[in-house]
Amino acid sequence: MNSDKLQAALLTLLRSGLWEKDIDDFSCFPLSAEEWREVFRLSRQQTVTGLVYQGLQYLPNGTLPPEPVLIRWTAEVDAIERMNRKMNETLSELYLMFHSRGLNPILQKGQGVAQFYEKPLLRECGDIDLYFNNSRAFSVAAVYVRLHKIALKKMPDKSLFYLWNGIEVEHHTRLFDLHNPFLQCYLNKLEREKGYEHFRLLPPSELKISIPSPFLNLLMLDLHILKHALGWGIGLRQLCDMARACYKLHETINTDEMEETCLKLGLERWNPLLHAFLTKHLGLPSSCLPYGATAPDAQPLLDIIWHSGNFGYQLTDRKASGQSIWKRKLRTANIFRQNLSFARRYAPKETFWMVCDLLKGQF
Description:
The chain contains 16 helices and seven strands. Helix content is 55%, strand content 8%. The longest helix has 34 residues, at 67-100. The protein has a five-stranded mixed β-sheet. Strands 6-7 form a two-stranded antiparallel ribbon. The model is unreliable at 316-321 (pLDDT under 50). The protein starts with a helix and ends with a helix. It is an alpha+beta fold and 363 residues long.
């Protein structure tokens, strides 16, 4: 099969579903039954099954997938919607517990980003990431989780991991995925200045969930994508999150201030590449970018996405289990080595500090 054609078909359908608009390129259609099965597989691999399914609604009848593929696709989307409802219920339980004890964690990404979509239930959810902005709150939250007879696992980056109602939850001590220690004071100051806001989960819930302010939210998503692009890899879902956040939040952002901040954070090479991908491949209007810098080509990022998928989980090395901690660290180091050319080109300073943390065992 022609992989370029299938990838083009996936991106075409994704753009249509992401913005709920007509198909913008019919050159890769129609597809054979085998090609449709591969597009379906790619959509699952990139965790954009629901969004691509939404794009199918804009195809003429003669170009739709064959019935067996369409039935599987519909069942998968139904499972995504049910999982999102379970995620919302779990998030409500956790926030009610923490609020009742005077704690107010900040939700990172996840359902906080899903609100930026036209149909939030179609966005595939992952885990729940909660940020506690002081050490006391972080410690107290862990105590209350343990009171429910739930075991917590300390991760290399000092976050805490556990399962709540079968949902993966992580507690974090920092809002941003940035490893340069000389920028932490600046980020802390920025966080205090910009602060947080609230949103409500889908009805019937009236619970207020705390999330970063628009300025901080865009920075958080940007740095999260960069971190994974430099490491195991990144998938289309995370890029879609960034695109939808830009679309919904751009009117609240001072573009000059955002550009100045990104320059201080060392993103002057990375962000033009990211912006090129968002506009050229995901169809984000350039007027919605946090600021205007755009690279002429987004191919280096596209190559990483097709190679690694959702956080690199399609890679054989990432799937390996039952290995010693040293073997896992060696695999992670090897991935960084393979991506070194990309990393040094687009984020040289951050790459240096990520490697330092890797050597200290903080990955």
